[in-house]
Amino acid sequence: AMRLAALLAALRPVLPLVLGLSLGCSLSLLRASWSQSGGEDPCLGAAGRPGALAGGAHLEAADGRPGPGHEDFRPRIVPYYRDPNKPYKKVLRTRYIQTELGFHERLFVAVLTSKATLNTLAVAVNKTVAHHFPRLLYFTGLRSAKVPHGMVLVAHGDERPIWLMYETMHYIHQHFGSDYDWFYIMQDDTYAQAEQVKALVTHLSINQDVYLGRAEEFIGGDEQARYCHGGFGYLISRSLLLKLHPHLDSCRNEILSVRPDEWLGRCIIDFLGITCVSQLQGQHYRTYELAKNTEPEKEEEEDFQAALAVHPVSDMTLMYRLHKHFSRIQLDRAYREIQDLQMQIRNLTSLTPAGEAGLTWPVGINAPFLPKSRFEVISWDYFTEQHLFSCPDGSPKCELSGASKADVSEIIESALEQLNSRYQPLLRFSKRQLLNGYRRFDPTRGMEYTLDLLLEAVTQKGHSHVLAKRVSLVRPLSKVEIIPMPYVTEATRVQLVLPLTVQDLDFVANFLDTFAMNTLDTHDNALLTLLFIYHPYDAQRVNQVDVFAGVKAMVGELEKRYAEIKIPWISVKTEVPSQVKLMDIVSKKHPVDTLFFLASVWTEINMEFLNRCRMNTISNWQVFFPVHFQEFNPALVYRGEQTASSSTDFLRDGHFDRHSFAEACFYNSDYMTARTKLAADILDRDEVLESMEVFDVFLHYSGLHLFRAVEPGLVQKYALRSCNPRLSEELYHRCVLSNLEGLASRSHLAMALFEQEQANST
């Protein structure tokens, strides 16, 4: 009995599991016996055929193969077969995954314009709503029309209205029919609320043939047939456009009409049997017809406030007034929605585990970033109305100007506006002075401000009082937008340019070995050009003693080892090796489409970085200046101990050298364009080039994006750089700072000083 009790006690924890498994197995066996029992199958047909179900589907055949009608429901493995007699062709993938998956853009907008309104109403449309649509084109019948700035115009060469409509539909189908789901056609005397049009298409199904607009009756036609009035715009789905295109020629020859919108509506009705509707799938296409001498600011009708399209717009001024009025309506609606959401958040906060203590300010905005250590603390920048005390160049004080000055002025105005809206009519505030200002950028929520304002408060009776008040404001991060970037590949050839001086001779061998191992052995698409910089004294003795003879011998050995590779070199004589002057020489000897990588002798080339150089450098768009990782002096860091060899901590004992701009990736065409602007600015003052680097040329004389980022794939061993005192004071100072900060970290330097003091004391 005791043994049985001990056994039951040991099995008690697993008893539920055993019972569950037993019950599951029993139910499975019972179900299998029911399904295999004999008897007449109730799903068989009347004649007892095991063929067809009542709904028309088919059962499987007796051998387990799918019967007719089941082909689409059972997956099949299609074996890959390649004919050995045919040459192998590499499969080319599409550039973008959305192309391969068959995704389409949402909305295309076509604006019909004319000679009389191209430079007036069409320009007004372009300035008001064009930037809200993803793609907008203007269509006209003019020949060789002069296109206003910032507009894309398609000229058909025939001003007849019907012909313009026919050519426009044909052009849209030919060039955009396979790229967009919806096509919105409007006239230039129409004001359309772009955001509402975009919201409308997001609520409509693309699987239907849609012809949506303001439905109008044909004159003397069928009472059931409707066409969409062109003045108020209309929406056509992609499926309808594809079905309509084969009939456009017949419509042009057979249908007579004066109005192009009537002609298109008749064409759609006669050949597709689809009429215009003003309501579809629960969505209403609301319009409003403007009367003469209408004042948009005074219109209070509900139909006008809710209108998606307004017509006719007689002049540019009215177009701008309409845009201002509807923008104000949308802004007020957005503020009301924000207030409603904030109220809901306040009501729901009490039900959360944190309670009301978890409510952040402003309501609905992310909480401030909480640092986990002192190194993650975000510092505040101090400013006044005239000066900024955290300057980009590192100086302690600089004048407040440009975007920073506009930012401070706007924040002060916003603070006064908020105070007056809260305390009026009891108090009215006016600014006397900004006592103190603080701001910081929190990446989790936006720009934060704290202002100490000296204010004058005036009561309703006219009494005034001066007081100081502290206010806090947040400029939250708005909706994140994806910036379109040109397409680049990793197949571009990189031309490495390596400037060498006499002081660099000790490091050339390691650079060439790394280059051969990581690029030549791997057959990477990269070439190397050496730039030998001779001092005038060494240049005079080059026939007797060539200081670069050893480097040239190494290059010869590489060319023997890799017969298909040639490593050219260029010899330059100068006392001041200006980076811009050297680049001028190299630029003239290469094609304009060359992708340069300006390297230093301490750079360790690898395929990972070269690919990032290709991807981050875009012709006529962006240049790339990587921040390399500089290892510390091992004598100070390790002090005789073994260096770290683990691949996980190779970035531990060093820092990213932000003072160095020696490495750069850019296209020759972009450099030549910026260099031409620089030459026009400095005229014949070549001494200015000695105080500039390639980074300065692109920064001040090009409109390109300058991408400056840390590059963990660009690691340099420690070496004491030689700083040329003949360069400008700024470049020399930057070189000295790079050497000093590259010695060791603060903790390592403190330990070295401590050990030195210990040694001196003993």
UniProtKB/TrEMBL annotation:
Gene3D superfamilies: 3.90.550.50. GO terms for cellular component: Golgi cisterna membrane. It is found in: Golgi apparatus, Golgi stack membrane. It is a single-pass type II membrane protein. Its EC number is 2.4.1.-. One of its GO terms (molecular function) is glucuronosyl-N-acetylgalactosaminyl-proteoglycan 4-beta-N-acetylgalactosaminyltransferase activity. It holds the Pfam family CHGN. Residues 1-20 form the signal peptide. Keywords: Glycoprotein, Golgi apparatus, Membrane, Signal, Signal-anchor, Transferase, Transmembrane, Transmembrane helix. PANTHER family: CHONDROITIN SULFATE GLUCURONYLTRANSFERASE (PTHR12369:SF14), CHONDROITIN SYNTHASE (PTHR12369). Belongs to the chondroitin N-acetylgalactosaminyltransferase family. This is Hexosyltransferase. The lineage of its organism: Eukaryota, Metazoa, Chordata, Craniata, Vertebrata. The gene is Chpf2.
